[in-house]
Design brief:
By secondary structure, this protein is α+β, with helices and mostly antiparallel strands. It is built from 15 helices and 30 strands. It folds into two domains: 147 residues, no CATH class; 361 residues, Peptidase S8/S53 domain (Rossmann fold), CATH 3.40.50. Strands 11, 12, 13, 14, 16, 20, 21 and 24 form an eight-stranded mixed β-sheet that branches. Strands 1-5-6-4-10 form a five-stranded antiparallel β-sheet. Strands 3-7-8 form a three-stranded antiparallel β-sheet, with no helix packed on it. Keywords: Autocatalytic cleavage, Calcium, Disulfide bond, Glycoprotein, Hydrolase, Lysosome, Metal-binding, Protease, Serine protease, Signal, Zymogen. This is Tripeptidyl-peptidase 1.
Length: 569
């Protein structure tokens, strides 16, 4: 069940035990390097010193290496520990910050008069409310400003911050200072924001088309009582219950389904429904049909909150969670601090060892492009798509746009190689084989890091979907935010059958997926995705090839075969 955030009962105790901790004025450790404020954000001005902010303190965890090893063992089908997943309490016991770390951070906050804090079950996050004046004193160098974009307003620091030398070693980062919500193809909950409203006679992708292509019958629906799935939505993205009911009435008549979300975690907005939110909910519920579905919605209760980080904190504080989560979110890797991404990776591992499958859209910018200056460019990987601890979903199109045919690459499908995370062992042989097979046609190696985590892991149709939004059927909606909930729904159906057999949920899928070597998936071998428009690559990134490739992964699901394969213990 959901565990409410716990008030820090230790603060009174800390007051009696902080006298021996003296924080001298040494703050030389800059914990985050500030990125330039994007031009699309308008600077309004400094916030009032008395304005309240909410900051998130990520405390250093213990046993992160052991956590990663545990995840490997419970996710590897060849391991004796496969499927022996941990409870939230067991995860908490493993990673909970040391008593010293908790005490130092609490005393540091208390020394600045900060006592209005909430913690989580795992004790590795603190969310504290304070005035802007106190925050700037706590974090020397920070200067809180208000920025607006369209109708959105956020409060962030315009300068890098530092923390006390004695505290630096006990913190991973402080959230709520620098990360601005991205826009365009990488906007939060809009990994498929580059929507192509193109004309044509194709009737478009519907639940019936998806079931025909991926061989789901009308009886492939959920029945297990202990199964559930979820989507996460951010930044003023809301689904409409009326739209969902209308969508199921129009497109779900041939199979048993739910027409309502069973649980909303967070606050639903009252404005118009968002395209992204509608797409996510309608397609996870029509593919993973008749399965209890949750919606995590977090627009950010305060301008200083980071909605994606708030969702991650929630996962650390809920003992009962859906088994499959699909998320359409992405930032450029180079827009984030390494410390932030490493900590988010640990949060992904915490979810994986509990048997939770996290699926992220690979993005809609192909290989991406970063201009390095002097006519030099490089590809631009996206995070969390590049995380080694999530399953990343790319996109495809029908070869013949008028028929249910085989699939080719959707040119927007995000993919490539991380510049931050090394290639995980589970995929080295598959990626090495790809690099050798297509060596003659690869882009110049100066554009990408061949030793980095390669993505995506698999794919599904991402082109020309029908969505009901504000009670109106809308055609030609495209992007990997479409393919991700479709794959998530199919994994939920497989979980359903596993749970009925008394088997554990699939959990972190990648180690098992790569050992299948393409078995039970439709291999996608045609097409390339987009990249830099320059003389060297001329807009072409990587291309699909037999077996795994960094455009469509291992391919798209052949549901009956994938079910049979993954039902094996």
């Amino acid at each position: 069940m959901f565990c409410l955030c716990l008030k820090i009962a230790h603060l009174a105790h800390a007051r009696r035990n902080c006298n021996n901790l003296i924080f001298s004025p040494k703050c030389n450790n800059i914990i985050v390097v500030l990125r330039q404020i994007p031009e699309d954000w308008k600077h309004v001005g400094r916030v009032d010193p008395t304005e309240k902010l909410e900051l998130t303190f990520a405390l250093k965890q213990q046993n992160v290496d052991l956590l990663e090893e545990t995840l490997r063992r419970v996710s590897d089908p060849d391991s004796a520990q496969y499927g022996k997943q941990l409870t939230l309490e067991e995860v908490s016991s493993l990673v909970r910050p040391s008593e010293l770390t908790q005490k130092v951070v609490r005393c540091w906050l208390q020394s600045h008069g900060i006592t209005d804090c909430l913690t989580v079950h795992t004790r590795d996050f603190l969310q504290c409310t304070m005035t802007a004046e106190v925050a700037e004193t706590l974090l020397p160098g920070s200067k809180f400003q208000r920025y607006t974009r369209d109708s959105q307003s956020v409060v962030r620091s315009s300068a890098p911050y530092s923390v006390h030398d004695d505290v630096h070693q006990h913190l991973d980062f402080v959230g709520g200072l620098h990360r601005l919500p991205p826009k365009g193809q990488q906007e939060l909950s809009k990994a498929s924001s580059n929507r192509r409203q193109k004309p044509g006679v194709h009737l478009g992708v519907t639940p019936a088309i998806l079931r025909a292509r991926y061989n789901l019958s009308t009886t492939d629906v959920g029945t297990a009582q202990n199964n559930s799935q979820a989507v996460a939505q951010f930044l003023e993205q809301y689904y409409s219950p009326a739209d969902l009911a209308e969508f199921m009435s129009m497109f779900g008549r041939s199979f048993q389904h739910h027409s309502q979300v069973d649980r909303v975690v967070g606050t639903q907005g009252t404005g118009k429904a968002g395209m992204e939110a509608s797409l996510d909910v309608e397609y996870i519920m029509s593919t993973g049909a008749n399965i209890s579905t949750w919606v995590f919605t977090n627009p950010g209760r305060h301008e200083s909150q980071e909605p994606f980080l708030q969702w991650m904190v929630l996962l650390s504080n809920m003992s009962d969670l859906p088994w499959v989560h699909t998320i359409s979110y992405g930032d450029d890797e180079d827009s984030l601090s390494t410390a932030y991404m490493m900590r988010i990776n640990t949060e992904f591992m915490k979810a994986g060892v509990r048997g939770i499958s996290l699926l992220f859209a690979s993005g809609d910018s192909g290989a991406g492009c970063k201009h390095l200056g002097k006519g030099q460019n490089s590809f631009r990987p996206s995070f969390p798509a590049s995380s080694p601890f999530v399953t990343t979903v790319g996109g495809t199109s029908f070869k013949n746009p008028y028929k249910v045919t085989y699939e080719v690459t959707d040119y927007i499908s995000g993919g490539g190689f991380s510049n931050v995370f090394k290639m995980p062992d589970y995929q080295t042989s598959a990626v090495d084989a790809y690099l050798k097979t297509v060596a003659a046609t690869l882009p110049p190696q100066s554009y990408y890091n061949t030793s980095g985590r390669a993505y995506p892991d698999m794919a599904a149709l991402s082109d020309n979907y029908w969505v009901v939004i504000n009670r109106v059927p809308v055609p030609w909606v495209s992007g990997t935010s479409a393919s991700t909930p479709v794959v998530g729904g199919m994994l939920s159906l497989i979980n359903d059958q596993r749970l009925l057999k008394g088997l554990p949920a699939l959990g972190f899928l990648n180690p098992r997926l790569y050992k299948l070597k393409g078995q039970a998936l439709f291999d996608v071998t045609e097409g390339c995705h987009l990249s830099c428009l320059d003389e060297k690559v001329q807009g072409k990134g990587f291309c699909a090839a037999p077996s795994w490739d960094p455009v469509t992964g291992w391919g798209t699901p052949n549901y009956p075969e994938l079910l049979a394969t993954l039902l094996a213990e």
